[in-house]
Fold these 2 entries.
Entry 1:
Amino acid sequence: MAIEKIQAIRGMSDMLPEDAPLWHFFEKEASSLAKLYGYQHIRTPIVEQTRLFKRGIGEVTDIVEKEMYSFVDSLNGDELSLRPENTASVVRACIEHNLLYEGPKRLWYMGPMFRHERPQRGRYRQFHQFGMEAMGFKGPDTDAEQLLMLNRLWKRLGIAPVRLELNCLGQLEDRKAYREVLIQYFEAHKDILDEDASRRLYSNPLRILDTKNPDMQDLVNNAPKLYDSLGEESKQFLADLEAILKAEGIDYVVNPRLVRGLDYYNLTVFEWVTDKLGAQGTICGGGRYDPLIGMLGGRDAPACGFAMGIERVLELMKECGVKPESRECDVYVVWDKALYLNALSAAERLRDADIATIIHSGSMKFGNQMKRADASGALYALVIGADEAAAGKVGLKALRENLEGYGEQKTLTIDEAVSLLGQHV
Ligand code: ATP
Ligand code: MG
């Protein structure tokens, strides 16, 4: 009887070895830039109490309304959720451990998030985010700092330019005023509203501006602008942020329709968007969330941050032809029958010197071993043959055209081999 094969869950992907170099390249650049800007690493659990996200993201949001993996722990009845994003958890951790006690904190995170969405290109049920949260900073210098860092990251990853869209949501009072104006406007056009929009008309009318429904584009394009409801301070905040971006030569467009849906956002909101990925073109989104820490029970403190969809960024890197170097090892050891222990001790010498080394495993003809060496991507083959071993030496063969002495085999002592390899790998 054939044994049934078990498959991964829809929308949740394996990271396969062929994509590992791209992931590693991203992770290295992102974490080193975070450090470059003085941000510290934080990791929070993947599972939290459901009410953290209900309160920290908002009940009337796509995420909480229909995308959360929520369940009751059958062992104790706790209501839990897989985290759909990381900001609420980071704020929870800050409050729980009193991290802001000594002053403001710059934090970054990276890891898997979970949302029950319809899987498609750029949209998965398990996906990964890299994000930063600056807590206790009033801005706009901090908002600008994160945008500068992101602009630098796109360059380092080889995907620049990415379009920066910016908006100012004002303070809660500004938005309350705007909300009324918007409700009146949409009420006058009720016949054009789709189901989602009708449902949100009174609960979250700003979110209607975000609609992707083509039949509603004219309606939202002609809607009253949030900017006109902003108080002087909010307008000044946006102007100050724009001045920093201009001084640093960061291109951006102000998009008055950008609202990013979450109740707790205020002042700055932004998205980085590419046209190269089809419908899922937003690779990063963020903004200011001054009310959130207080809403989750902490002492009020202003904060701003962003989250980036790593899968979308990697897709864009592929689209841009970014190909980080990848090889299984630097050196592949091929060896004659009966000389395994010589091969092993040579390999361990190389590893002492931090040279990534694979010893051919299993018996095989010499020629086939060399084929494996070539396929591994190794730069060199280290040859442990009977003649070399008898002379207390090893053979070293450069496998790549761009290496000195390509194609010929040198006979060296292991010390000479280590020192030559040390200069080339
Ligand atoms: P979208 O409008 O595409 O649904 P969102 O507003 O729900 O995005 P955020 O909650 O702001 O997204 O998350 C920040 C970033 O995380 C997004 O800009 C995107 O790059 C990425 N992201 C969000 N949801 C997914 C998903 N289901 N699969 C892959 N990446 C995602
Ligand atoms: Mg979404």
Entry 2:
Amino acid sequence: MIVEPNGVIGILGGGQLGRMLSLAAARLGLKTHIYTPEDHSPAGQVADAVTIGDYKDADRLKDFGDLVNVVTYEFENVPAETVDILAANHALVAPGGKALSIAQDRLVEKEFVNSLGARTAPFHAVDDLASLEVGLGVIGRPAILKTRRLGYDGKGQTTIGAANGDLSLTWDEANRKAWEEIGARPSILEGFIDFEMEISIIGARGRNGEIRCYDAPRNIHKGGILRQSVVPSGAPDGAVKNAIAITSKILDALDYAGVIGVEFFVEKSGGVIVNEFAPRVHNSGHWTSDACAVSQFEQHIRAVAGWPLGDPRRHSDCIMENLIGDEVERWRDLSREANTCIHLYGKRDASPGRKMGHVTRIRAR
Ligand code: AMP
């Protein structure tokens, strides 16, 4: 199946990723139709069509599926039911439901990654205070407690036993506090990795099984939110090669079509550990819009539309910086800087922690 120019790509989700996917599709002469519960979504502002609907509204989803040639998504928490409804109505969804269901559950995701022979942080399933205590006995402190589902940008996670933690609490009290902090929900306890740096691989797999990966950015997080991606990363070549090999295994095992973002910890020894993956375009790949001939957004559209994948090589070194909350006000100064590409997402409310835009500073290689 190939979606030809003037064909329509349906996108579940109306955020900035859907917006940048729509802009990339438009350049290829393809149209996008956004499905989102949100009025005035960042993606809806630039797409050809928008359906405002609930992700569980079977009638709306059916109508949407009838109007598009292929359906993709821009966030990984699309309910499984949405994909089931679309599939029952013969809509083609890419990447498929398997990638979504694995990525939505941190426990299933880690087991899947391990089953491919790749390493993750040591982990232990936590369903109550008793299993948390057992997990801490196995993994030791410090450790990170994360909800299995629906966590993002550092939300739904807390550290237990950090050197800078509250020393006035007994261990029992600290465990209870952590358990309550994450909402007493099914969780996973992860060993704390003393990493040298974090990198990610933005990889793509075409419908014919062809795989292309971008150079790895080094990712700098604060408070669990990505602040900067720096390319080249400075990671040892062997670590990047390994990370690309693991990404390729994940893509093949999922029989994937589209772009994936896989996050890695690089150890001091040069070893790589998978943190998590997102079955979609990824914030740490935004720099590809300005430093590569074919961005991750165009690559994703090419893959789901059945086109040949583009060349992922970069022509520039770069630093991508997120504009979070009221940092977006810096657009006035940033717009005076040379070699600085500004991307603003059209969001009205700059609430704290909200991703409002990003800039990429590029330098020819
Ligand atoms: P996540 O939501 O799992 O991507 O976590 C957000 C950020 O928290 C990561 O990018 C790391 O900076 C940090 N982090 C998460 N898990 C671990 C871990 N097991 N060890 C050390 N740092 C971690």
